[in-house]
Amino acid sequence: MAASRVPADKILTNDGSLAEAPIVIRFAYSFFFRTLLLALLFIGASASSLPAASRISDYQAVFIPFYDVDGMPLAAVRRYNRGDHPHFLVLDPQRFALSEMTAVQVLSSPPAGDEAWRHTPFSLALARQTSSPYPLQNDGLREAEYPVSGFFLTADLCPAKKPLDRGFFDATMGLPQKRPIPVALMISGLWIQRHEADLAWLKDQIGAGKLSITWVNHSFTHPYDPAAPLEKNFLLMHKTGFTDEVLSLERLLLERDITPSPFFRFPGLVSDRQLIESLRNLCLIPVGSNAWLAKGESPQAGSIILVHANGNEPEGIRRLLSFYDSQREAFRLGSAALLPLKEAFLTR
Ligand SMILES: [Zn+2]
Questions:
Q1: Cα 186 to ligand 1 centroid, rounded to whole Å
Q2: Model confidence at 12: pLDDT above 50
Q3: Within a 10 A sphere around the Cβ of 180, how many other Cβ atoms?
């Protein structure tokens, strides 16, 4: 499959340019600036009588650390309009989770310095997982950062024509473990565009309390050329479009009322120093694997297990199901479990 660019109507073209734009926009924190911006936001909000829509526009990366009401540091990492209303996506560095907040909530909070942010668990984990030596394959988190008695299940949804492998989810939801059962789905934009009904089915499983899904960015177009060498394949084909690949997938999720997580899986697990540093500036932790089942790797305690839930790698699913069978008693006794991805990181 030849690589394709992000479709013209899907990319974020705030600045009208496809060139790599500055990805972190730091806001000055002078009292005057913040007061003025806050006043403009209030005026804007009162002048608009339109109901909030789910349409997301003007989506861009920012970095604004601030303190919540309990004095804990948070950071706004994306800014956008939902309908006519400015919002931020805010990263909680204790919970390794993003949530949506109004611009007024963020900009009326006391600012935090870089120093306070740098000592948070998320910031420390981000630094660890984006440090040298930048391998071409499988950079980032491959196993838990400390001993755990469980596994981290990650399932890729690369672009595919086949329907979602619901049998995989049924088997996972059938494990003898307390529900909801955690799974990280590495999701691409082109998969979403062809599988809206499957996405709705996944949301139904969450609504029914069966699954707890960590939505992990797997890029928008997931470029891949089976004839190209790794050094020029996957996202290394169009490095200048990397930020658009990341941000346009987040926007697609938010428009479907799905909140992304602060994690990223590189297509093919292929990256280089430049992409890893760009990812770090976007406040996303790369997630690799030490148990890609279709490649014959076996899960150990703490493994990040990799399978494909898009129907394209049945061998991986077959091996996962036999792994489930071998572990069923341990799951029943509670001595093994599937764990949420965020629990793979040291929290201090
Ligand atoms: Zn993939």
A1: 8
A2: no
A3: 16
